[in-house]
Amino acid sequence: MRIPIAILSAAGALAITAIGLVTVAASTASASLEVNQPNMAATEIAVTASEWAFEPSSIVIQAGKPVLFQLTTGGELSHNLTIDAPSGEMRSPTFRPGEPVSWDVTIEEPGTYTFFCSFTSAGGHRAQGMEGTIEVTAGGAQVVSSVGA
Predict the structure, then answer these.
(1) Given 48, 113, 132, 133, which residue has the most CB atoms within 10 angstroms?
(2) Number of neighbours of residue 57 by Cβ within 10 angstroms
(3) Which one has a higher pLDDT value, 145 or 136?
(4) Got the DSSP string for 74-127?
(5) Are 45 and 105 in contact (CB under 8 A)?
(6) What distance in Å separates the CA atoms of residue 97 and residue 145, rounded to the nearest whole number?
(7) Measured between alpha carbons, how far is 90 from 95 in angstroms, rounded to an integer?
(8) With contact defined as beta carbons under 8 Å apart, do 28 and 57 qualify?
(9) How open is the CA angle 2-14-146, to the nearest 5 degrees?
(10) Which sequence spans correspond to the domains of the chain?
(11) pLDDT-derived band of residue 96, with 50, 70 and 90 as boundaries?
């Protein structure tokens, strides 16, 4: 039996279990993917940031289900992924070119939330268009999509 102990910080989350397992949690425009979540295992969602977009830019997940974001940058700048959540901003660690990051997130409340890059260089990444939405549903299949124009 694993007993998780969570330590949260502004840079991410660290989960340690009683058997010694350590999981480090860390942070864009066209495709569609459906994922079923039959249990509490984390669903992996790959997100790529570039100048100035996220792929995918629209994500749908289930409330209370863990999501493991696999974050990479396809451009030349470093980025993060920040979620405007009901409990406050959730911010991934910085991900740099050639240095992907895994970030574990669980959002408990259904609703639609904005995610963005909070970096302020180059006039502000969010102001340049690095923004998307996460729809948190009460249950069912998960759809990740963003068909950019």
Answers:
(1) 132
(2) 21
(3) 136
(4) SSSS-B--EEEETTEEEEPPPBBTTB-EEEEE---S-EEEEEE----GGG-TTT
(5) no
(6) 24
(7) 15
(8) yes
(9) 105
(10) 27-146
(11) very high
Q: Which residue has the tokens 């993060």?
A: 80
The per-residue pLDDT for range 127-142, each reduced to its tens digit, is 999 999 999 999 754 4
Report the C-alpha gap between 108 and 98 in whole angstroms: 32
Strands in 31-35's sheet, in edge-to-edge order, are: 31-35, 142-146, 58-62, 131-137, 111-116, 82-85, 88-91
- Which residues make beta-bridge pairs with 8? 13
Side-chain half-sphere exposure of 27, counting CA atoms within 13 A: 23
User: What separation, in Å, do the N-terminal and C-terminal C-alpha atoms of the chain show?
Assistant: 48
Global confidence as pTM: 0.68
- Specify the DSSP element, H or E, that contains 136: strand 131-137
The answer to whether 79 and 49 are in contact (CB under 8 A) is yes
Distance CA 97, CA 143 (A): 27
CATH number of 27-146: 2.60.40.420
